[in-house]
Amino acid sequence: MNPRTAVFAEEIGANGEVWVRGAGSRVGAPDRIRVVSAPAGVDSFQPDEMTVSCGAGTSVAELDETLRARGQYVNLGQRRHASGTVGGAVATGWNDHLRLGRGHLRESLLEVHMVDGRGDIVKGGGPTVKNVSGFDLCRLVVGAHGRLGALAEVTLRTRPIPPATRWFRLVDLSTTRVVELITRLHRPSSILWDGREAWVCLEGHPSDIDSTVLDLRRHGFATEEVDEEPEPGRRPHRWSVPPSRIVEHVSARVGRVLAEVGVGVIHSDEKQPERSIDPAIAGIHHRLLSSFDPDRRLNPGAGHLPGR
Q1: Among 182, 204, 183, which residue's Cα sits nearest to residue 193?
Q2: Which regions span the lipid bilayer (predicted)?
């Protein structure tokens, strides 16, 4: 544990509401609450082990630059939000539209040191999977908006930067054809579909990508390489649905939505209809909050966790 974490814990203390501020690019700090900032700076980067440790207040840009020099990156949803701090990325848990191939942001988090609502330092996870045992705290804190604990330090899994990242547009994709497309692609990084056409991201060695595209064309898929990827964020609302129901939802809204096939995210101009929260799930959220922050003093009101 870095000594800065102990100083951070002292700043948070054990009384009074407190807000952990990053860059303010995702969520702004309210005026009425005392504000603290997490430690910043890259502490350790081990390219051979493919891990990096840094303060939660480290900027995503600084981390990207450090890793890029050794041909690596860490998946923090940068295509959705490339700025801000590492802690902000983890706390909000915002994935981008390459999640199908690159995985969920939470899979990048190996170890976390944080300060709970009592002012105690809590550690979860480990720098390697084989060292991890007990409660999977890392998965809990991703997307919790800092309400379970104020993030101080994180250890992240890095990956090699792909030799090539290329986007292709496919037209005339009916429901049947998009299902066939999925079966013919090996580990695509993204499939975006609006009910009529699709955009596919393929990453890897250029020759492997060429072979995949050639196979698609042999099977009748009209495939055109494009210079720019689509921007799902132009549609303001994100729906979360079971991946198996993507085709059903898109077929009912052809041309009005853009779906991440295989993931279960739909980008839409309309809000998703309200869904009731299972009382049992709400109860779990409430007990978790009570365990980590019984007085609800950390980032109060942030996120959407019931139990305030």
Answers
A1: 182
A2: none
**DSSP E strands, 208-303:** 223-226, 237-240, 257-260, 265-268
Q: Distance between CA 275 and CA 44 in Å, rounded?
A: 43
List of domains in the chain:
3-160 (3.30.465.10), 164-268 (3.30.70)
CA distances from 205 to 129, 164, 184 (A): 28, 6, 18
Residue 298 DSSP label: B
Helix (H/G/I), strand (E/B), else coil: 86: helix
Calpha distance 258→187 (Å, rounded): 20
Tell me the mean pLDDT per 10 residues along the chain, length 308: 90 93 83 92 96 97 97 96 94 95 95 96 80 70 94 97 97 89 92 95 97 95 93 92 93 94 94 88 90 94 60
- Cβ neighbours for 138, distance < 8 A, ≥ 6 positions apart: 106, 109, 110, 111, 112, 124, 125
112: which strand partners?
Answer: 124, 154
